[in-house]
Each structure stands twice: as C-alpha cells, then as structure tokens.
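Budget justification, computational time. The allocation requested in the original proposal was used primarily to generate structure tokens for proteins on the priority list. As evidence of use, we reproduce two of the resulting records. The first is shown immediately below.
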Amino acid sequence: MDGPDEIIHQPIRLRVMAALTACDPSEEGLDFTRLKGLTGATDGNLGAHLDHLTRAGYVEVSKAFVARRPRTTVKASPQGRAAFARHVAFLKAIIAGM
C-alpha cells in the first residue's frame, strides 16, 4: 500500500484538491473566491497553498480580467487528479482496516 501524498495530506490542500477534482475536467475550474469559501481559508493562506500545489504540478492557475476586475481560476491538472485518487485510495484502505 502506498503512503499518503505529503503534498495533499495537509488539510487545506486536501480540501482544495477535493473541491477541484469534484469539477468536470473539461470545465474551467473554480474561481479563487469560490474556492476560498469552500475551504474556509483566508486569501493569503489559500494563495500559499495554491503556490505549493502549483509547484508540485497538481493545479493550474490562470489569471484574467473579467469586466475590468481580476479573476483567478484554479483547475486540477491530470497529475493532480491522479495524485488525489491515490491519496483517497490510501485513506479508504485505512478506513477498511488494511
């Protein structure tokens, strides 16, 4: 059995990856503000965790202006989706008592 993914294991990053992998991969992802609400993180805290996930290749962050306002969108990468699936399998194995 593989161990936990040390990048995803942290609670805020686990929430981020859970929210992002629940989205359809063909969609654009989640808006930063929506993701902040789903995770309960502050702007700075979420930004730091997104930087960590981006460096690991688990998420893709895009920035644009919509109606003259900045908009940050976050999407799970294929690598991030695979890592999250492995981490969830690890947690399920623990729950199953393996």
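The second record produced under the same allocation is shown here.
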Amino acid sequence: MSLIQRRGLLAAGLALPALGARAQATQMTAAVYPGGWDEALRAVLAPRLLQQHNVTVAFDPLFAVDQIAKARAARGTPPFDVFVLDPGPRVSGMDLGLFETFDPARLPSRGVLPAGYADNVGAAVAAQVVGIAYNPQKVPKPAGWRDLFRPEYASKLGLTGFGTTFGTISLIEMAKALGGSETNMDPLFAELRRIRPSVAAVAQPAAMPGLFQQGQIDVMYTNTYTVTLLRSRGVPIAFAVPESGAAAFVTTMHIAKNSRNIAAAYQYIDAMISTPVQTALSLDPYFFVPVNKEVTPGADVPMRSISEITNFVTHDWTRINPLRAGWISRFNREMAG
C-alpha cells in the first residue's frame, strides 16, 4: 500500500470531525509504552476515540514493569485508567489485584478477536513474533538458536538481557536449545560466558536497532516489528524463524482497579481493536502485528492471520516471573564489562 493510499485510509477512517458543536469531552488517562507505541496511539487511536466517543486521552509513557510499580505504589488510587502489558507483568497485575473485572460484552468489536482474546481480565490488542534478525549481506541465515553460539555468529552478535519480554523469551529458547529449560538457565549462562569475549556488543534493548543499523552488530534476537522498521529505513535485515519455531505473545489492555472512567476505558480498548485502528497500526510507519482477524499481518510476520498464533512457541509466565529478577541480576553481573 502506498503512502498516498495509507493517508487516504486514515482520512476516511480516522479523521477528526469539526469540533465546534461538540459537547464537553470525557477525559481519561492510559499507560502506553514509550517510543513507537506512544507515537502510534497518539496519532491513530486518540483521534478515533475522540471522533467516535468524544473521549480525550492523556497518555502516560511507561514500560510494563513500571506501570505495575506505579499502580502498586498508588495504593488503590489508580494513576491511569488503562494498563497495556506483556504476559509477565500481566500475571503480576492479576496477582496484585490491580485490575477491574473485565466484561468482554462491553466491547462492540469483540467479534474481530479470536476466541479467548478477551476475558474477565482484559483484552488482547497486539501481538509480537520473536526470532532472529540477521544481515543477509554479512552472514548466512541462521537455522536456530544454537547457531548464535558458533564463532561466525557470536562475533557479530548483539546480546541483551532479561529486562524485556522479547529478550527473556529469546534467552529461554536459547537455554532450551542448549539442554536447559524454561526454568533452568545454567546451560545458557555457561555458553554466554564462553562466547562473551568475542561477542560484538552487550547493550540495553533500546540500543540494539541502532547498533544493527550502524553495522556494529549483524545478528540479534528481536521481533518482526523491529525488522520491518529497519528495512523501511533501508537497512539490510531479514527475519529468521528458528528451527524450533518462532516465539509469540500478545500484549493486552486492562482497566485499572477503581478507575473513575470505566465507560471511557471500555471505549478506548474497543477502539484499539477496531478494524480501522488495527489496519492503520499495521502499516508504515507503525508495523504492529494485529490481533484483529480482519486485518492481515505485514509481510515480515510469519503468519497470515492472528488465528495462526497457536502454532508458535509460548511460555508459562507463572513459572518465569518468580525467577526473572534473579536472571536479570545474574546476566548483568556475569555479562558486564
């Protein structure tokens, strides 16, 4: 789809009407991931919400773990009306009782979601598919996670730790390929220590795309979003599905316990899953993986419908969460320097 076509879509489905005769808008607050999510939801979701429901939204840019920490510190007075979370923090929020009971029947668009994607906790709003990104001009396509520990890949590899969901599940998949398990990282850490002197970079997750773009690394573990974004900027990059399968997870939205804007919060989540918003978010420059069954994922996503996500590798965060802080500390300690 061309840029002109995309602008036409946005103009048709998301344009703001004249506001002269509009009544006073309802105001709400939503947590949003910093960076691409923040930009996308301000540009696409907020106008739709105002157009359809006369609701304005103030965004609070916070990573998932910071949302949980902020809500927990607020002691029953929610700092925002809607969370957006990946699987690990979602489980933590459930355990801490931070969410209102969710009623999927209050989402007019719920029929566009696969079965089970809206329940009494919240609703899925986007997906991520995680695998190996590589520069096809510099290295051959890796077959799987074990390849990253071979000299020809390790010397071009960018390593990042357990601080993100994509980092955590990638490292878990490496551990499994090396004889470990979802809860046993010892084989992984042994191999990481072995290759540490030769790896191209150990850095924070946000630094990885820049290092790849600059040619300082030629291999990294990431999601399809990052691959598509870099390719749109002219970077030579490809996505490899590991032989054990790509990993996938969904990002969900939840209404904060004691929210004073529950009706608006449902309208916000419903707008997020609607076909016009999911379509716009799937396109350049946002490249979201849609959960809406009516929207086809982008070319870099190894599925043609969200219904195929059941074919991907998933993880049990009730087992991972209690161990994750220890893994983060261990990675930082053993891989520093």
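A brief technical remark on that second record: The first strand starts at residue 26 and ends at 32.
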